[in-house]
Amino acid sequence: MKRILLLLTLLVCQGYSAFSQDQKLIDSLENLVKTSTNDTVRLTAFGDLSWEYGYSNFDKALYYAQEELKLAEKMNDIASTGQAYSDIGNAYTRVNKVAEGLANHQKAYELRLKAGLKDKAAGSLSNISVIYKQQGKYALAVEYMTKALKIYEELKDEPRQALVMGNLASVLIIMKKFDEGKVVLDRTMQISQRLKIAPIERNTYSIYTEYFFNKRQIDSALFYAFKALRMMEEVNAYNDMALMYNSIGQLYIEKKQYDLSMKYYKKSLEIREAMEDELGIGSCCKNIAYCYIALSRFNEAEKYLNRAIECFKSIDSKDYLREAYLYMMDVYRNRNDYKTALKYHMMAQEMKDSVFNQQSMDHINELRVEYETEKKEQQIVLLNKENEIHKLELTRKNILVTVVIVIFAVAGLVAYLLYNRNRLKQEAKLQAEIILQQDLASKGIIEAEERERKRIAGDLHDGVGQMFSAVRMNLSGLQERVKFEDESTENLYDKTLALVDESCKEVRSISHNMMPNVLLRAGLASAVKDFIDKIDSRKLKVNLETVGLKDRLDSDVEMVLYRVIQEAVNNVIKHSGANHLDIQMVKDEEGITATIEDNGVGFDANNKEKFEGIGLKNIKTRIEYLKGSVEFESAPGKGTLVAIHIPIKA
Predict the structure, then answer these.
(1) Which of the residues 282, 453, 634, 641 could staple to 597 if both were Cys, CB 3.0 to 4.6 A apart?
(2) Predicted local confidence at residue 150, as pLDDT
(3) How confident is the model over 508-559, as pLDDT tens digits?
(4) Residue 20 pLDDT more than 50?
(5) By C-alpha distance, which of 175, 176, 200 is closest to 188?
(6) Span 345-364, mean pLDDT?
(7) What's the pLDDT score for residue 520?
(8) pLDDT at 477
(9) Topology of 1-156 in CATH?
(10) pLDDT band at 33 (very low <50, low <70, confident <90, very high)
């Protein structure tokens, strides 16, 4: 059965979405449970139906899992009973009913442990750990994940090891243990790519998104988010897609691109509605409302907040409800309706945890005590002031002397600060002039290089190219005038003519590569596409994606970026041994981001000697000329990622 095959490859926890429903399979299974008289067959069919409906229809998923449980208990089959409890737990967990999910997974774990089913018991541990993660009990989540991981290591089950490690890395990142999380995450990716397990690979990309988001590297987070999303969409992994749409929405909020953020939140909402996931629906509505507030579209924000509040009330989610009330407070405050805004503020206050309220009161009491103490000290000072007057008279002369000394000291200090300030200004001017000269030198070198390319390209096209054309024409004329003595002579003539034709094409190709007309005529995106179209796709498959490059860029930017991409691709062809290459160019308000990623042999990016080559130096020099940045991410056997960012002046 389909569910069993998926379980053998990876499925143990809630973090993975099922593949899209196969309606024919569902119809066949439903017919099987109605007509079959074999309890073992019906038991498996009930479990498969619960699995198939798990991400689309909660009621049916739960119904078939409960029927599975009834039949397993009737058969007195402890292993099947444990599986049924696990399926019930999965059904609840997928719609965020975590308390019910946890209770059923704990029952499944006890039964599997009793039956001596180590691998199944580890699966239950993993499921329980994911629920603890959802509840914010991260220490417990790590504890259960570690237990599951040890069992899978004993069983040498690498796919499930990778599955658990992915969830463990996610929890470590949430706990701000970034270095530990990155080590676990890299190990997970190695296993998933080596074993070619696409679901684990896409989940690992999702966790890389979490990692870079928490490191505040938003462009890198978006890059991995879209890699994960493409893999999810290929298999219609709807639950994962909903989560990733939500993550992308959050990333665009960080970039203050609220329209884009709202677009992805609404995509997530469509899936949550289909799954009848009340918490997910409420969360999406709250996030959409936040975008509308940021865009000052308060009527739309209120509509979505009302729906979010209704969802959160239905599942008694106080934390989310409190946040929704605070957003509603912002809506009414921006409308200058302070009375209603205050009402929602008070409602949000009521949602606070009693412990938090007690801590707040303790803090207020501490402040009150400090205030009263300070007030008493001031009264004591006033009472003693008269006694201090005569002492002040005695010390007045000393104070005058001290003031004079201080004045001289301050004067000396001011003189020193002025001198030091002037010296720093001179050094800053000198440094600025050095940088300017370096920029001029870099610009001069690059412009001279482009002029030389144009000259050579022109000489090849107008000089050598025309000479070859004349030779070709003369040879063609000879054919009509000369009578060949034998067939071999005529064949020699034909081969010579073919060589001349090939030479003409080669000269033309070299000329166009040195100064591509399509770059001057149609812009960067078209030039890069024209360049990669000439690459033999049987040896290297190149995927090009461009966003926001409809308008022409500054000619220097287009030329430098074209040369850098050309150099990077040539490096891939010559050195990487790759058979797949992804090129992405995105233009937004901040500038242009370009990434070139291959699946080749890679290299040690920490080895400085690798950066001594002319090719990589040229790339860095050209990007620095445009005040941009370039990063190289690579390791032996992991391919290479070149990430480029060039700011655009407003």
Answers:
(1) 641
(2) 93
(3) 666 555 556 666 677 888 888 888 888 878 888 999 898 888 888 787 788 8
(4) no
(5) 200
(6) 59
(7) 67
(8) 64
(9) 1.25.40
(10) confident
Determine how many CB atoms are found less than 10 A away from the CB of residue 362: 10
Q: How far is CA 575 from CA 43, 568, 580, in A?
A: 55, 10, 13
DSSP of 101-113: HHHHHHHHHHHHH
CA distances to 512, 526, 563 from 517, rounded to whole Å, are: 7, 11, 14
Structural domain spans, the chain? 1-156, 237-352, 522-647
- Give 552's DSSP letter: P
Q: What share of the chain is helix, strand, coil (3-state, %, to 5)?
A: 75, 5, 15
Q: Residue 594: CB partners within 8 Å, gap ≥ 6? A: 561, 564, 565, 583, 584, 585, 586, 643, 644, 645, 646
Among 629, 648, 536, CA closest to 581: 536
Distance CA 44, CA 433 (A): 78
**CA neighbor of 7 nearest in space, from 202, 199, 204, 236:** 199
Alpha helices (H) in 335-353, listed in sequence order: 338-350
Query: In a 10 Å sphere around its CB, with 0-12 CB exposed, 13-18 middle and 19+ buried, how is residue 179 labelled?
Result: exposed
Q: How confident is the model at residue 202 (pLDDT cuts 50, 70, 90)?
A: confident
> 315, 352 in Cβ contact below 8 A?
no
Phi-psi region of 578 (alpha: psi -120 to 50; beta: other; left: phi over 0): beta
**Distance in angstroms (rounded) separating the CA atoms of residues 374 and 321:** 40
- The b/e string for 270-304 (b: 16+ C-beta within 10 A; e otherwise) is ebbeebebbbbbbbbbbbbbbbbbeeeebebbbeb
| Angle at which helices 278-294 and 298-314 cross, to 10° | 160
Give me the phi and psi of 229, to 5 degrees please: -65, -40
Q: Is 592 helix (H, G, I), strand (E, B) or coil?
A: strand
* C-beta of residue 95 within 8 angstroms of C-beta of residue 88: no
Cα 646 to chain centroid, rounded = 20
Instruction: Write down the pLDDT at residue 5.
Output: 28
- CB proximity list for 326: less than 8 A, separation 6 or greater: 344, 345, 348
User: Which residues contact residue 423 at a Cβ distance below 8 angstroms, ignoring those fewer than 6 apart?
Assistant: none
E strand or H helix that includes residue 597: strand 591-598
Whether the predicted pLDDT of 383 surpasses 60: no
Rounded-to-integer distance, Cα 225 and Cα 212, Å: 10
Are 594 and 647 in contact, with CB atoms under 8 Å apart?
no
Asked if residue 288 has pLDDT above 90, the reply is yes
> What is the CA 339 to chain-centroid distance, rounded?
41
Q: Out of 2.40.30.130, 1.25.40.10, 1.10.940.10, 2.60.120.260, which CATH number does the structure's domain 237-352 have? A: 1.25.40.10
At 73-87, the pLDDT tens digits run: 999 999 999 999 999
CATH 3.30.565.10 fits 522-647, yes or no: yes
Q: Measured at the alpha carbon of residue 452, what is the angle toward residues 449 and 454, in degrees to the nearest 5?
A: 110
Tell which wins on pLDDT, 485 or 405: 405
Give the pLDDT of residue 110. Answer: 92
Asked, colleague to colleague, whether 1-156 and 237-352 share their fold, the answer is yes
* pLDDT classification of 297: cutoffs 50, 70, 90: very high
DSSP helix/strand/coil, 336: coil
Averaged pLDDT, 185-190: 90
Structure-block tokens of residue 490: 């005529």
